[in-house]
Each structure stands twice: as C-alpha cells, then as structure tokens.
Amino acid sequence: MNTLTQSLLAERDKAVNWHPYTQMKTAGDAIPIVKGKGVYLYDDEGKKYIDAVSSWWVTLHGHAHPYIAERVFEQLNTLEQVIFAGFTHEPAVQLSENLLKLLPENQKKVFYSDNGSTAVEAALKMCIQYAYNIGKEKTKILAFRNAYHGDTFGAMSVSGRSVWTKPFGSMLFEVIFIDTPNAKNLESLKVQIKSIAEDTACFIYEPLVQGAAGMLMYEAEHLDELMKFCRSKEILMIQDEVFTGFGRTGKLFAANHLKEMPDIMCFSKGLTGGTMPMGITTCSQEIFNAFLSDDKYKTLFHGHSFTANPLACTAALASMELLLQEETLTAIDRISGQHSGFTEILAQHPNVENVRQTGTILAFEYKTDQNTSYFNEIGKILYAEFLQRGIIMRPLGNVMYLVPPYCMTTEELNFIYQNILEVLNAFKNQDHFPTHAAD
C-alpha cells in the first residue's frame, strides 16, 4: 500500500463504511491499521499499538500468527467451501472430535454456525424445539439480568433490556430475568425458579463473567448450586462460553470451574484464534435424540451458508493446537498471576473501586460522579488517552479491563500496568475528569 493510499484510507472508510457500536456523526476518523504482528497492530503512519483487549476478545495467540496462517493457506489450496447439508470434510470432523474431548463428558454433538449470536440462536431453538418434539409445551426462558448474548433477535431477547434493545422492545420475546447467584440470594432464586419451572424450556447464562455488562463476575460454587437446582426441575441449561471459552478464565473453559454440566454450550470469539468468523453450539445426546425421528418435521431447520467452513475449521484446529501447548498454558497461568498481583496495587488506588479478576480477565472501575454506564463519557476520555500512549483499551463506560493475547510477555503486560497507573494519577485532580478521588 503506497503512502497516498494510506493517508486516504480513513477518508475512504468514512465515505462507505458503517462501524459497529459507533455513532457515526460524532465519531472521529477510524484509525487505519495496515499490519498486525503478535500483540501489536500498526497504523498507516507506522505507529504501533499494543492490543490489550485481543481485538474484541478474539485474538488468543496474537495477530497474524504464522502457524495458523500456514494451515489456512494449505487448506485454501485444497478446499475452501462446501455445502454442509449432505456433505462433510476432514477439518469439520476433526475439529468436532478434538473439541468434544475437551468439554464436559455429556457434550456429544456439534452444530456449526458463524458467530456468537448465531451459536446462541441455534441453542435457543434446540431447547424450544426439544420440548416441542417430546410433546411438552415449555416456552419460557430464564436468563440473568445484565446478560449479553448477542445482537440478533433471539440473542437480544435473552440479553438484559437496555437502550441497546429499546427500539426493538415490542418485538423481543418474553424472558424471565433473575440476579446472578450469591450466598445471600441463592435460596430466593430457587423459590423463584420453582414457581415457573413447569413452563420453562431453558436457562441461558454467561458463566462466571458477564462480559459486555462491564466484566461483572460471580462465584462458580453459586452457579453450581443454581445449575443443580435447574437440573432437578428439568430445565435445560445453555452455557454461553462465547467469551469465557478457550482459556480466558484461567482454565480451558469456565466449565472446568464447575461440577455441574450444561446441556448445551455456545462458542465463538477465541474459537479460531481470532483468524476468521465461526460459531459452534454443542449439545448432549439426549437433546440430539429428540430430533431423531421418522417425522421430518422434527428436524432442526437451522443453517448458514458458511456452516462448518473448511477454512474456519482449519483455523480453529490450528488455534486449539497452539492453546494446548505447554507454552500457552504456562502463559495463561503467568498472565493470571500477574493480574492477581496488579489487583492488589489497584485496590489501594484512591481513584479505583470494584477491582475484580477471573483468570486472564482483569477489570476495575474508575470512581466518578457521572452515571456508571456504557455511555459514561469518561470511557471516551480513557480510550483516547490510552491510544495516545499506544495501547488499545476499550473501556465499558467507567469500567476499564484487560483481556490480553496469551503471547503477551511479562514486560509488555507491565508496560500496560504502568500506563494504567500513570493515567489514574494524571487525571485524579483534573477538573475535566470528574472523580471521587481524594485530593
């Protein structure tokens, strides 16, 4: 790409592109990224940015990983796409075999889609039709308050109601929302669930961490209790591991922190190491069996043009191989340990509150007089400040968080920590940056 083309890229982008979660009238120019390598992204002027959020939580092993690229290139020269209805191919079979070996033992079948939202849509349809196929009328769905499961209509319906979903409110199906469990509310949650159990098809939840809600975290032991109770009431459970899967919680899956097993699991984001889109929904044999019938109308009528795309399957296989290497597992432990040490420092800072960590996910809140929500203007100020320092962080309002690629070194992570402390200290007394911080 020549210099002139680079300099015009932001203007060309503005002329034709509509960016996600962006108010295009007030947004600044998009930063043209021309290259990625490891934890760094490079813009059209040669400035490098350390990717502290794994580019929306997907890039497990760093950008442009040569092993994944090599594997995808080989597959591209063999088979790039084939309809998955009535056909199959080696990458899809191998990926399903490899993934199921890592999941709870009751997970037996894999259904492919193309992103996290559609993985959730498939899971919801499986649960509703499961009840229908076995002759039960169970249409109610249970979910957590503040949930986020995606932006398609079914996924929006089971997500917390907010300004994001308000324009579509009358079109979303009814969902019963409950609080995330803790020692104080567990028994009352059970009473609430018991009252609606007979009509409830499923319970969908983000295990341990509610990502888009602001990295809200809760304990595995309390989720286990809730899952055990739902099982006793024959309520199917959908475990949305789109974000928490593939090492983010310090273990391979959030499921590894739990004793109870879900009926259905959803995956995306880190599935291909951030290389290309893919979604997966796995389920138990019992659910799959409810669709096996001589009655063709009991078929799961769901699919996508790029279902089980061979290139995406190959990328996922390569990413999983890298994930299971001792070097990567050690890095996950190291990052988790570094985060743990830094939380102790953050907890003492006068501008910080609600420091929390689960595995490689670290989050905290900047104290503010403003409304602590996604639309808090402080988020924009923080975002711009870190970009200036060559760090990509994307605060959720006043919630700052780190979700680093696993290839990030101790020194690179310490560089981010140091800059966080510098920003917190620099802004604590500035009038344009409202704060509760002490003088």
Automatic annotation (TrEMBL):
Main localization category: cytoplasm
Entry annotated with the keyword NAD: no
Binding site for substrate: W56, Y148, K269, G303, R394
Gene Ontology, cellular component aspect: cytoplasm
Reported cofactor(s): pyridoxal 5'-phosphate
Annotated site (Participates in the substrate recognition with KAPA and in a stacking interaction with the adenine ring of SAM): Y21
Cited function: Catalyzes the transfer of the alpha-amino group from S-adenosyl-L-methionine (SAM) to 7-keto-8-aminopelargonic acid (KAPA) to form 7,8-diaminopelargonic acid (DAPA). It is the only aminotransferase known to utilize SAM as an amino donor.
Protein name: Adenosylmethionine-8-amino-7-oxononanoate aminotransferase
Organism: Chryseobacterium antibioticum
Encoding gene (name): bioA
